[in-house]
Design a protein that fits this description.
Elements: E1 10-13, H1 17-20, H2 31-42, E2 45-48, H3 51-61, E3 68-70, E4 91-94, H4 104-117, E5 122-126, H5 131-140, E6 146-149, H6 154-163, E7 166-169, H7 178-185, E8 190-193, H8 198-202, E9 207-209, H9 214-225, H10 228-242, H11 247-266
Parallel strand pairs: 1-2, 2-3, 4-5, 4-7, 5-6, 7-8, 8-9
Length: 267
């Protein structure tokens, strides 16, 4: 707070993950874990990207609920697509980092029996594969099924969404879950974890899995692949769901937060 001093400010909270579920959870000194709540208390208003994050902030740091407004993020990808050479006909897409909370390795392990039986089915991930990931995939016997696309531009990402059989998003924690909306806006069906903010964002337009249950992850993918009607249904529902998270609504929501903060400060 030293650099802010007594100046009024608005705060945006995307998630509470690092201080409530990360390594900071186990430190002896509570200062860092309390910083988010302290800042929220001193802000004129707080914008939260989801009701889940808002509730987490209130529950863990006793922040006054009336100070927090939920302003959902939006799909900011433009509609134009850029061709990508040599895309396989059938592929499942995973977007973003593959660190521990994203749960990608556990998902791959769960669905590897299906991938081994289906050499025509690929999984495309964004970003380079590490040598450790490649070793793990070889150990599972699925290295030939997994392709990586590095340094993807936004128009290329749109192409990946549009041509994918589905986006798989087995994350254990999300403050919002932006790839879910990006995929839905581009007609890409979504298979996602049934935890944290993800069901709030995906609504009834996603096929949900228990990210801690291997059987749930395997069965969901198997059922999806064998059910074209389900694929079409999720694609159509996803487009409708994505319209609830428009850029206009996001911008309007943020403007409203700032306007209310100014009015509250002037009183």
């Amino acid at each position: 707070m030293n650099h802010i001093q007594k100046k009024p400010f608005v705060m945006t909270v995307h998630d509470t993950m690092q201080i409530s579920r990360g390594l900071h959870t186990f430190i002896d000194e509570p200062r860092d874990t309390l910083a988010l709540g302290y800042l929220a208390d001193h802000a004129e208003l707080v914008a939260s990207v989801s009701e889940y994050t808002k509730n987490d902030l209130c529950k863990k740091y006793l922040v006054d609920r009336s100070k927090i407004q939920t302003v959902y993020l939006a799909n900011f990808l433009k509609s134009e697509a850029e061709e990508i050479q040599d895309l396989p006909k059938k592929y499942i897409l995973n977007v973003g980092t593959r660190n521990g909370r994203k749960n990608f390795l556990e998902w791959i392990k769960a669905v590897s029996p299906l991938l081994i039986k289906r050499p025509d089915l690929y999984v495309i991930v964004t970003g380079a594969l590490t040598e450790y990931e490649q070793y793990f995939f070889r150990k599972l016997g699925v290295s030939k099924n997994i392709l990586s696309k590095e340094e993807i531009t936004d128009p290329q990402l749109v192409t990946l969404y549009k041509k994918a059989m589905c986006l798989v998003y087995p994350s254990l924690y999300e403050g919002f879950g932006l790839p879910v909306i990006e995929a839905m806006a581009n007609g890409c069906p979504v298979i996602a974890a049934n935890c944290t903010s993800i069901p709030e964002v995906g609504g009834s337009a996603a096929l949900y899995i228990d990210p801690m249950n291997s059987e749930s992850m395997l069965n969901a993918l198997g059922n999806f692949i064998e059910n074209p009607a389900l694929q079409n249904e999720l694609s159509e529902k996803g487009r409708e769901q994505s319209e609830k998270f428009s850029k206009e609504a996001f911008i309007s929501g943020m403007i409203d937060v700032f306007e209310q903060a100014v009015i509250g400060y002037q009183k």
